[in-house]
Amino acid sequence: MQYSIGELAHRTGLTVKAVRFYSDRGLVPPSGRNAAGQRRYDDAALARLDVIRILRDLGIDLATIRRVIEGETTVAEVAAEHAVSVEAQIGVLRRRRAVLNAVANRGSHPEEAGLAHQRVLLSEVERQCLIGDFLADALGDRPELAGVARTLTPELPEQPSPEQAEAWIELAALMRDTEFRANLRRLADGHVAGLRRDLAAEVRDAVTPAVMATVVPKSPAAKAIVDGLGRDPGELREWLGVVSDPRRERYVELLGVINGWAAPESLAPAFDWLAEAMAA
Fold it and tell me: Which of 77-93 are b and which e, b meaning 16 or more Cβ less than 10 Å from the residue's Cβ?
């Protein structure tokens, strides 16, 4: 049976313009022409248009549809691939919804809301690029810090809680802070050089008991604790100036919220005590 473009449009529910478009693109070639030179189509064209309409309704692009029409792949294979893609998009939209709700609940001023909007309305690719750029700038491209990079990487879940969404808003701002990046880079440089490796743990173990016992930072007992660290005073002061940056501890706190980790121990009291003891 032969059909005109208008008859194909009527039978498939498509517009005449759409049928002509698919025909012009070679997806539905005419089987011939009538005496007036008008295009005519057969049942195969009708079947092709049904497949095209269904796939287009599902959001499949024309290039993939052409592969189906030309027998390079099957509808089932395309549907399976597209289902995976849609699932990924759903995850992105769920995260975006959670973060948008967090922005809405903050009741921010227009200026602040505008900045937050720029930070959080990121696609999955943009979000990963922000994280990657931050880690590369803060740590450098050094294989020996790969483990450190993993511990500093936020993994926003597909359906974040309001707390996780709030944490991501603040963390994204910290990642864009160039001064904070520079401070982390100085810590990373010292770590690689071996000068400050495990120093935070050493300070915690040596100083925390003194803080809890209310040892006076200007006392002889405090001097003995500082001397016991066995570090060059200049190096120790420089290290303290970087590691005591409150943004570093805040980053770790926010990271714990986003990744669902236990709340980290605050080392700020130990750092403050050590700074005062060294000043004495």
Answer: ebeeebeeeeeeeeeee
* Residue 132: partners with Cβ closer than 8 Å, 6 or more residues away: none
* 84-88, 114-118, 185-189, 222-226: range with lowest mean pLDDT: 114-118
**SS3 track for the chain:** CCECHHHHHHHHCCCHHHHHHHHHCCCCCCCEECCCCCEEECHHHHHHHHHHHHHHHCCCCHHHHHHHHCCCCCHHHHHHHHHHHHHHHHHHHHHHHHHHHHHHHHCCCHHHHHHHHHHHCCCHHHHHHHHHHHHHHHHCCCHHHHHHHHHCCCCCCCCCCHHHHHHHHHHHHHHCCHHHHHHHHHHHHHHHHCCCCCHHHHHHHHHHHHHHCCCCCCCHHHHHHHHHCCCCHHHHHHHHHHHCCHHHHHHHHHHHHHHCCCCCCCCHHHHHHHHHHHHC
The region, left, alpha or beta by phi > 0 then psi within -120 to 50, assigned to residue 245 is beta
Express each pLDDT in 226-257 by its tens digit.
999 888 888 888 888 888 889 999 999 999 99
Residue 96 burial (CB count, 10 A): 18
Mapping DSSP onto H, E and C, the string for 226-245 reads HHHCCCCHHHHHHHHHHHCC
Interatomic CA distance for residues 269 and 271, integer angstroms: 6
Torsion-angle region of 260 (φ positive above 0: left; ψ -120 to 50: alpha; else: beta): left
pLDDT at 255: 95
Tokens of 81: 């691939």
pLDDT (mean) for 143-155: 89
